[in-house]
């Protein structure tokens, strides 16, 4: 590339694809050659304790595929392992940068990072433009008639559906403009080892979600059945288009799978308007609960050794695969916060470290729902009975047998660490004391 030719940088983050990419489409139409980049952000990676974190391997493999995709179009992807501000200082010195395009990222760290990058670029008279790409509706696009954010899901969903028009599902035709990509050969991607990570041998789900949509309502609650798409990981990192997912879901004969996509956007909207919910109860009185926070009980929960098969199976599945069935997530979250009276934030942080499909807004929202402290949450007196949940949703014990094989021999399986009736009564008393 000629250093005197103005270029536009497109910064990939949670949009690891070239097709139907809003920000990339806008960049390609900007009138300048496009330099695509990705940054393995040291601010994020250096905080990860597990140096075999499977999510890093997933991103790495997605970046390799993205790089190959650009090369098919006679371009490339420049990949960095650094802090974003350092990367842009380097690029500004090496190129005549006219603008930087990217897609919105809604999490709290991202907001701080983007503010700093925008200020840095402004000092050099470089535009910083961001676009909506990972949701159908964001921030203030679905609100009450008075402009205030919804805090209950059903009316939010109804307004979301009313607002949905073909325009919002239309794909961005990036392929028409690939000729505007800069022709260059990028340097090699920094290796996982250079970044301090090992290659995970985790198995990642494919992108084939379509076959799960029509039967989702019927099969989604049974953890022994492969009735869910596991598409959350791909949505998290943008290796699939939310517009494609929502289009297919909207065309389905029933809308349960679409509802799950709407829940995802509902929680993102809540986190945007109420950022304190990242680590504080949406309902402030719930921060008055006197948690027991027994560390031995928390360890037993983490390891799947609570004496409750449904809880233990879920935790072992999570620890082994980075995934947990959604019905089971509700059971284990309720058990931790209500049976054990352990602060929901402990569980949220554990899930954040383990879940391949971890998404802060949905994870925080889900944990606060289970604890009763969140927006549109289950009432505090709704306490899942793990035994009843097992009998209802795993009646043949197929899920239990897979993850807790010793359950077949009661002499080898631990006794429950807390008795259900006692735990329920204790929970009700603790929550009532905090809320009155």
UniProtKB/TrEMBL annotation:
Q: Which GO terms describe its molecular function?
A: deoxyribodipyrimidine photo-lyase activity; DNA binding; FAD binding
Q: Which residues form the Photolyase/cryptochrome alpha/beta domain?
A: 6-136
Cofactor names from the entry are:
(6R)-5,10-methylene-5,6,7,8-tetrahydrofolate; FAD
Q: Which GO terms describe its biological process?
A: nucleobase-containing compound metabolic process; response to stress
Is Ribonucleoprotein among this UniProt entry's keywords?
no
Q: Which residues form a coiled coil?
A: none
Tell me which Gene3D superfamilies the record gives: 1.25.40.80, DNA Cyclobutane Dipyrimidine Photolyase, subunit A, domain 3 (1.10.579.10), HUPs (3.40.50.620)
Annotated Pfam families = DNA_photolyase (PF00875), FAD_binding_7 (PF03441)
Q: Where are the transmembrane segments?
A: none
**Residues bound to FAD:** 216, 257, 260-267
Family of this protein: Belongs to the DNA photolyase family.
> What name is this protein filed under?
Deoxyribodipyrimidine photolyase
